[in-house]
Amino acid sequence: MGYTPDYIDTLLPKQIFVFGSNALGYHTGGASGTARKKFGAVWGQAEGLQGQCYAIPVDYGKNIRKDGEVRAAVGRFITFAKEHPDLFFLVTRVGCGIAGYHDEEMAQFFIDALNLKNVTLPKSFVDALGGGVCYDLDRFITAQETVYVQALKEIKEGQKKGQWMWYIFPQIKGLGHSYNSEFYGISSKEEAKAYLDHPVLGARLREITQAFLEYNNKTADDILGYPDVLKVRSCMTLFDLVSPNDIFNEVLYKYYEGQRCDKTIWRLGFHDDKLKHQIKFSRITITKDCTVLLTDYDNKEVKMEPMTKAVYLLYLSHPEGIAFKHLPDYRRELADIYNRIKPLGLNDRVLKSIEDVTNPLLNSINEKCSRVKAAFLPLVDASLVDHYYIIGKGGEEKKIILPRNLVIWE
Questions:
Q1: pLDDT-based confidence at 128, cuts 50/70/90?
Q2: Which secondary-structure segment (H or E) carries 300?
Q3: How confident is the model at residue 38 (pLDDT cuts 50, 70, 90)?
Q4: Spatial separation of the C-alpha atoms in residues 240 and 371, rounded to whole Å
Q5: CB 19 within 8 A of CB 55
Q6: Facing residues of 408 across strands?
Q7: pLDDT tens string 168-212
Q8: How far apart are CA 2 and CA 122, in angstroms?
Q9: How confident is the model over 50-89, as pLDDT tens digits?
């Protein structure tokens, strides 16, 4: 079931919040305060099940460490968890606050809980123990079994009707208060990555997201309605943070003006100062006078000489690609583009240049493609730049692979 979430403010039935208590059972701050205020921890009870939580005594006073007592109390908890397989225990960073333990130290006490199916540990504990995590992704497979085909059909038809949002477009745990939002909530970035890497679930998410992207005359609200339009934004934000510059980023730009879900960002432990350094695609704006601007990079201009720019705009206009051997078929279109860039007429020198650049037996087209690449290299991060210039294998269609929803023609 993955790691214990960093933030827990609601529980499903049978879920138990496991926290560190002081020896007197005074549940005041931190996780113990949350346990008392929200999950039924009993004032003065230092250990054991109480309400919908379980206390483990770890704090014996300032600078007092009783490792033997703590180890024994953790052992009693593990025994209790084994004896109650109907309950699911969410272990917080027990002992790593006022009690003064480091995660690596406390994790050793929980080593016997690492493989219990009804216990999750904090990621820091699991990492310290060198253990792996097995996520219960089968819950999504089971839920999708009878509805995925219908859900895909509804999205393709442009009108969501069924009640399948939680397990078709999953979101981070804690955004809602219903059983479904909790049960199908993704607990962490790591679980989201496991979902995306799953051969069935990841493929389905990409397929239905692609279907959602293919509308050009509807808004997200038209297709999804409220509040599902917000849930999909949360889903796209989650998977965009897992897989940046992917199809999920395209949805955020196309339907949500690039705005992500702040609550999802916060629950994953990101902050604005971190996100602003995350490398993102920029939209391209082609102005009426054929200036090429990187819209989201402070409108930086991509400067190219006229014929190079004409070749670039030709390929930008053809997302399907154009093989070099077919370029002679595009001479008239290339001439029209050049004439928009330099509206002073096509003289003999320009016509000869167009003939040369569309002749696959000459090197002129390769030279122009190299100049396009050189124009983008100083402006776009190296990890993204190959989406902006003209690429392709020899003998096949050459194309610009930047998603076309990121291209704005004025």
A1: confident
A2: strand 300-301
A3: very high
A4: 32
A5: yes
A6: 285
A7: 999 998 887 787 888 899 988 888 998 999 989 999 999 999 999
A8: 9
A9: 999 999 999 998 878 899 999 999 999 999 999 999 999 9
Using CA atoms, how far apart are residues 186 and 192, in angstroms rounded to an integer?
A: 6
Sign of CA dihedral 25, 26, 31, 36: positive
At residue 410, does pLDDT exceed 60? yes
Q: For CA atoms 237, 243, 247, 249, give the dihedral sign.
A: positive
Q: How far apart are the first and last CA of the chain?
A: 49
Contacts of 199 (CB under 8 A, 6+ apart): none
C-alpha to C-alpha distance for 32 and 35, rounded to whole angstroms: 5
Using alpha carbons, list the distances in angstroms from residue 339 to 232, 287, 293, 368, 398: 43, 15, 19, 17, 23
Distance of alpha carbon 6 from the chain centroid: 17
Calpha distance 77→69 (Å, rounded): 12
Confidence of residue 288 (pLDDT cuts 50, 70, 90): very high
How far apart, in whole angstroms, are the C-alpha atoms of residue 177 and residue 195?
A: 22
Kindly report whether the global pTM for this prediction surpasses the value 0.70: no
What does the block give as tokens for 375?
A: 């124009």
Rounded Cα–Cα distance for residues 215 and 157 (Å): 10
Record the tokens describing residue 80, joined without a space. 């209790």
Integer Cα distance of 144 and 69 in angstroms = 47
Tell me the C-alpha distance between 229 and 204, whole Å. Answer: 19
Q: Is the dihedral of CA 109, 115, 116, 122 positive or negative?
A: positive
Contact assessment for residue 397 and residue 389, using Cβ atoms and an 8 Å cutoff: no
Pairing of strands 15-22, 88-91: parallel
Q: Is 85 exposed, middle or buried (0-12, 13-18, 19+ CB in 10 A)?
A: exposed
Please state, for a pLDDT cut of 70, what percent of the chain lies above it.
Answer: 96
Q: Say if residues 317 and 381 touch (Cβ distance below 8 Å).
A: no
Please write the tens of the pLDDT for every residue from 159-171: 999 999 999 999 9
Task: Calculate ∠ Cα 89-191-121, nearest 5°.
Answer: 30
The predicted-structure confidence for 132-154, as pLDDT tens digits, reads as follows 666 778 889 999 999 999 999 99
Give the CA diameter of the chain: 94
Residues in the chain: 410
Q: How far is CA 13 from CA 17, 68, 86, in A?
A: 11, 33, 10
**What is the spatial distance between Cα 264 and Cα 396, in angstroms, rounded to a whole number?**
42
